[in-house]
Amino acid sequence: MKDKFYPVFLSCTFLGALGEYMALTTLSWYLLETYSAVAIMGQVLSFRVFPRFFMGFIGGYWADIYDRKKMILLVYAGIMFMSLLQTILVTTISKPHWLLLAMTLFMRSIFDGAEPSIRNAILPDLVKKEAITKAVGLYATGLNLAAILAPILASFMMFKWDIKYVFWIDLCFQIPSFIVLFFVPKIKNIKSENQKTSIIKSYKEVIHFVYQSPILLNCVKTSILMMFLLFPFGAMLSIYVKEGLNLGVKEFGIISGIESGGAVLAGIFLSKIFGSSDKKIIRWHLLALLSGFILIAFYFKLPQLLFYFLIFLFGFLTQSFRSMSRIIFQKKAPDLIRGKLMSVIIADSGFVSLGLLLFTQLATKTDIFLTTLIMGILICSIMLVKILKSQKLATE
User: Fold this and answer.
1) What single DSSP character describes residue 3?
2) Under 8 Å between Cβ of 171 and 19
3) In degrees, to the nearest 5, what angle opens at C-alpha 151 toward C-alphas 238 and 315?
4) Are 283 and 337 in contact (CB under 8 A)?
5) Rounded to an integer, what distance in angstroms lies between the CA atom of residue 378 and that of residue 292?
6) Is the Cβ–Cβ distance between 96 and 104 less than 8 Å?
7) Contact at 8 Å (CB) between 114 and 75?
């Protein structure tokens, strides 16, 4: 972690994340304001999330057979190009057809989906092996620090100026995040005959590797369930604030910032929460369980200070859960299949789009409070069963 490049890498990544989160915060509010329909917002945002499912696998395959540095440069160039198209579409047309916007976001997500698998494959080459947990923690801290500032800055700009400025700033902030990739140290590519196999055959081997490891298999199953049931609430927060609490964009920015503050704290204390023992996996299940209880609490109209505390705690718990699943896989990943193996756990994000579609439709037919309650009850029920099962196996 003493290497001079890694702090620069984190700083530039922070700027890129800050711009992306500002655009995301603005986008959800823009969709609600422009189309005045929760269902349309859910459909458009689902287009942005869905490609992460299959592109994560492709990105992991590319990372293991091609030069990882060149691949991340090409993918990030695609991200910047699609960001430009998105910005032009939103800022030059008063009310673009929602399907046109959805397709633009879908194409942007093609590159976004491939990028994390390649980046996670590169990460161990930037730090020492024993520092991976700390590296992931610091990386998550930088991303979530950006997530704190982004909604506050975005809401301020929307409130004081014009919404188009946020999208242009996003594009500008992506530039240093792209440039720093040119200075990534040369990565030694380990050659293997397995790298020449087709993507289908090579992933059969990776899936077999996961299946043979009870820890990794449990990690994948649990992550998929929580991405479907828990993490859609983050994208639905604007609905909860606007339609449920009847608050404006300024309050939305503050609440989003408070949630991200909890996520930053999670990144700082990640190594202490998780430790180095796989026996502490039960703590991972508890994080999801407590998150479910908080969603149940959100069914009620809470006092302001209590709501702020719970949304902060929600950000802390959910980010800890997400980062710990990545750490579990990083520790178990052989370098020859690291890209493909990491893509398996990163692909869980694709299930957020399915949950988002389901729960935004449910919120349209009922209300956001009842939808949140249902999400919380489902999460708590599943995690209680998993915790009880884990304890039973431990005693045996």
Assistant:
1) -
2) yes
3) 75
4) no
5) 8
6) no
7) yes
Please, what sign has the CA dihedral across residues 75, 76, 77, 82? Answer: positive
List of domains in the chain:
5-185+197-395 (1.20.1250.20)
Structure-token pair, residue 148: 């704190």
Whether 1 shows a pLDDT value over 50: the answer reads no
Residue type present at position 162: D
- Contact criterion met (CB below 8 Å) for 249 and 25: no
pLDDT in tens, 348-384: 777 877 888 888 889 888 888 999 999 999 999 999 9
- Following DSSP, what letter does each residue of 39-105 receive, concatenated? HHHHHHHHHHHTHHHHHHHHHHHHHHHS-HHHHHHHHHHHHHHHHHHHHHHHHH-SS--HHHHHHHH
Tell me the two tokens of residue 154: 């975005």
Please name the helix (run of DSSP H) or strand (run of DSSP E) that holds residue 16, with its range, or none.
helix 5-35
Task: Please tell me the pTM assigned to this model.
Answer: 0.67
Cα–Cα dist 230/222, whole Å: 11
